[in-house]
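Run: sequence + BV8 -> complex structure.
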Amino acid sequence: MAAITTKPEFAEFRQLFSKARSVLVLTGAGISAESGVPTFRGAGGLWRQFNATDLATPSAFAQSPSLVWEFYHYRRELVRTKEPNKAHLALVEAEKRFEKEGKRFFIITQNVDGLHRRAGSRNLLEIHGNLFTTRCTSCGFIEENNDSPICEALRNRGLPNENGPEIAVTDLPSCRQCRSLVRPHVVWFGETLWPDVLEKIDEEINRCDLFLVVGTSSVVYPAAAYASIVAKCGIPVVEINIETTPSTAVSAFHFEGAAGEILPTLLAPITDDI
Ligand code: BV8
Ligand code: ZN
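>> structure
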């Protein structure tokens, strides 16, 4: 059992968890860190000389679709080699138990790596999209695409330490329906989240009675605001992170440590410890 079981707030959390009827979990890049997926703002957040936030924008894609596709191809190929970790799996177990007990357990993830889905989470909303879905820049056709590589021109490209020649747009991933250039179906910085996603987020925020914030630096909006929105409604917020963040101030409890260590203990079935 992780050392947190000796902390007084552990027993208080377990009381809350045993009474909760509708748990909502917000996850960020930190929950995938123990799977070996670099976080956005940690040491791994750089690719070549760019920050991820420089490349995850419509203007970067307009300026060089070749460079942005190399970045996303690199991330697709990297994530493909990784597995969900104990934190992802603890959430899947909890969701299954809650379902059996007629209670709700829902995950809102900012991550686009698809690891929650691969772990088996079903009550899941990928609010920023997914690396393995494309959208046509011309006809809007959206499809899941797990091809490796996603197109021949990107084979062996995207390595973080080498710049190759610009790939012609006509050789970049194209739409199955109209042959135009496709983009990753993710929400870039400066783009609004999709209306149906925003609606679903509101619905889940309004129905939860316990809110867990796991592995997010809480700086990217609108997700960064959810903890304070929930706390203002008098719902307990519990943060799991290796550092404090802007969400810590509105959290009833902040469990410091790695999600893969802490979540399995926090979310373990309620037995005689209550
Ligand atoms: C929007 C998809 C309307 C792409 C991503 C209000 C105020 C200020 C700025 C704004 C605002 N409203 C809008 C903005 C602009 C912008 C924004 O928030 N900018 C930030 C940088 C200030 N937001 C937007 O543009 C959003 N759109 O609001 O539309 C609008 C538009 C324009 C202007 C006004 C309004 C769209 C945001 C979505 C961007 N797309 N992803 C892709 O991935 O390629 S976001 C991207 O960042 C990832 O999805 C990532 O998940 C997400 C958030 O980062 P984190 O997940 O928190 O990751 P990070 O690395 O930062 O932190 C990791 C954490 O884990 C750390 O705390 C670390 O301590 C912890 N950790 C590490 N290891 C572990 C761990 N914890 C536990 N265990 C471990 N083992
Ligand atoms: Zn098309």
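>> summary
The CA atoms of residues 137 and 182 lie 5 Å apart. The first strand starts at residue 22 and ends at 27.
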